[in-house]
Specification:
This protein has 289 residues and is α/β, with parallel strands linked by helices. The protein has helices at 2-9, 22-26, 58-73, 86-96, 118-126, 142-154, 169-179, 197-204, 213-219, 236-243, 251-258, 262-274; strands at 12-16, 33-38, 47-52, 77-80, 101-104, 128-132, 158-163, 183-186, 208-209, 278-281, 284-287. Helix 3 (58-73) runs parallel beside helix 4 (86-96), helix 3 (58-73) crosses helix 9 (213-219) and helix 6 crosses helix 7 (169-179).
């Protein structure tokens, strides 16, 4: 009880069943109450879940960021699971758009998992909310992740599976969404990418392929917000963008292809990353689609 009182004193609140958003009431088998930290009113706005693997490729993270940014810019609350990889990229995309995002946790509200997301969770609570159906002090296990995934689907009008290997928790979220009658969107990728084999299975089973955020907004009958055209890069920045693709490229390779000085490449690509043009991963830098 002391842990509960401490959590309540630190801004955690309890959302009771009668106050649940309509989507959650429609889902049927849900907890009698939820723990929330932040502004739960974002759950009553249009909601779309973005899910995928924790071991995401640079391409997958870039797409998750792009879709979340566009959806949040148009007034959609982006729902995800607060995990590494696709989830984190989706939350960050929504935050960078100045929109709302909700992280559904597989632990008690007082447990930060993964620990490296302490700062991210604080940002989410300040621009949306953290949600948990587990008691204060509850630690994660694989079974709780599956329960969490059902809640992600239940809170969302639709879900977008960005990158899911053959064995992925994101597939359980998609299954739950299907059972609830929510539309499941799947992002395409090269057929030899291991991280997308589960995604391809969803497409074979009838999920809707999506290549642009506006297709999701159109399905939800939400008018896309007009986005300002990005300022064209010039000089060295433009040369770097011209050689990059959605597949990561090392800075050494960029230097070879552009003929630019290594220090200039590092400087310019840092600016492009800050502008949201490129994303960095283990294999180097890639264009955000």
């Amino acid at each position: 009880m002391d842990a509960l009182h401490k959590a309540l004193s630190e801004g955690v609140s309890i959302l009771e069943f009668e106050d649940y958003p309509e989507l959650l009431h429609e889902s049927g088998n849900v907890s009698p109450a939820l723990f929330v930290k932040g502004d739960a009113t974002c759950l009553y706005e249009p909601t779309v879940a973005i899910v995928g693997t924790r071991a995401a490729s640079v391409y997958g993270r870039a797409c998750a960021y792009k879709f979340a940014h566009a959806l949040a810019s148009s007034g959609v609350t982006v729902v995800s699971g607060g995990a590494l990889g696709i989830d984190a990229a989706a939350h960050k995309g929504a935050l960078d758009a100045g929109g709302h995002t909700a992280a559904v946790l597989a632990t008690g509200m007082d447990i930060v998992y993964p620990r490296v997301h302490n700062g991210l969770f604080q940002q989410i609570a300040g621009s949306g909310c953290l949600v948990s159906q587990f008691a204060i002090g509850s630690r994660m296990n694989e079974f709780k992740f599956l329960i969490r995934n059902v809640l992600v689907a239940s809170l969302s009008s639709a879900i977008i599976v960005i990158e899911a290997p053959a064995k992925s928790g994101a597939l359980s979220t998609a299954t739950a969404a299907n059972e609830l009658g929510r539309e499941v969107f799947v992002l395409p990728a090269n057929i030899d990418m291991h991280g997308f084999q589960g995604s391809f299975s969803l497409l074979r089973d009838g999920a809707t392929m999506v290549t642009h955020p506006d297709q999701v907004l159109e399905s939800l009958q939400i008018e896309p917000r007009a986005m300002a055209a990005p300022v064209e890069a010039s000089g060295p920045g433009n040369q770097i963008l011209a050689v990059l693709s959605s597949m990561p490229m090392t800075t050494e390779k960029i230097v070879d292809l552009t003929g630019l000085d290594p220090a200039e490449v590092l400087s310019e690509i840092t600016l492009l990353e800050l502008e949201g043009r490129v994303m960095r991963g283990a294999g180097g830098y890639a264009l955000i689609p």
